[in-house]
Please model this.
Amino acid sequence: MHEIILCKLGEVVLKGLNRHSFEMKLMSNIRRRTQRCGKFKIYSRQSTIYVEPAEETCDLDAAYDACKKVFGIIAIARAVPCPKEKEAIFATAKEYLGPALLAARSFKVESKRSDKSFPMGSIQLSQWVGGALHDAFPHLTVDVHNPELTVYLEVREDAAYAHGPAEAAAGGLPIGMGGHAVSLLSGGIDSPVSSYMIAKRGVQLELLHFASPPYTSQQAREKVLQLAQELTVWCGRLTVHIVPFTEIQEEIRRKCPEDHFTLIMRRFMMRLADRLAHELCCKALVTGESLGQVASQTIQALCVSDDVATMPVLRPLIGMDKEEIVRIARHVGTFDTSILPYEDCCTVFTPRHPKTKPNLEEVREYEAALDIDGLCGKALAGRELIRLYPQQ
Ligand code: ATP
Ligand code: MG
Model:
């Protein structure tokens, strides 16, 4: 029996005239992400993408796990194709789902017939195969409302398919269809989650991290790269841009009032992100800020940092509680790394009494003491670029 993977399309199916390009992008993303599992034939028919092993040595388990995390796929199932004849369909369902049928106490059969030339209607096919399975597994009862196991049959253009319940997959939209953005990645819990959420909407991310050695350690840097590596499971290959931030922080500390330190630092982060985004042809910035979480995340403080950005700043966590964010971080797989106790550049030189209701004019005046262009130019010139790829 040769098993294949069926990937059901999510919102892609709502895309009307753009649908073809969404499907093409999704297939190329699937192709890239299954590459290391062997050669697969990947094609699309009727709101489903088929991932079919093209050689004996294909690792179907690994390909299935990889596809489950490709944005744009809403549900996923392993299935077995067979000829479009009722006896063959029954025999396939019996053999392929035999262990599951033996373990269940109740079942039902659900059929879909998109090939209208198939001589039986879907209800008729369900009844016929259901009856035959009942004869083969007499311990089972039929329960159409609440069965322990549902056997799915699909009669499609090329073949018929039998499979068990589909599993939920990543959802969202194919990466690459939503444009490019720079995502600010710290070592905390929030920013890996905000990166994941925007990537899920089809956006290709460039990750940006500010490091302040010697105030931040090598371990803090490794931690951020580890988080980025964990994001590749969902995002595919990623580039991390590491920008040195020490000199900027020292200059602010030297020349600006302490209660404005964090605000001015955040404005520098925005400026640098904005410049990098222009250079990389990105059209938006992404942060993990959440309203009221800390002093620099009040509405007034966000206005002050947005003031220096020339492009939209996307803040997908803005209305979320920490608890909700933690739940997503666990789902994404970044939580355990995020809670490793290494410092971030935001936690060095933290003011004792940070301003929560800053005045923009006042902030601009304090900043006039700094060589903003020179500092930004120097920081960006010293950046490092690290490319990461999904691993087995
Ligand atoms: P935490 O879970 O600790 O809140 P955080 O990542 O949200 O982590 P904050 O200090 O709240 O940290 O920072 C707000 C946002 O600013 C982050 O979500 C991130 O987008 C950005 N940011 C903070 N520090 C850095 C950094 N060192 N490099 C890049 N971006 C950063
Ligand atoms: Mg935060």
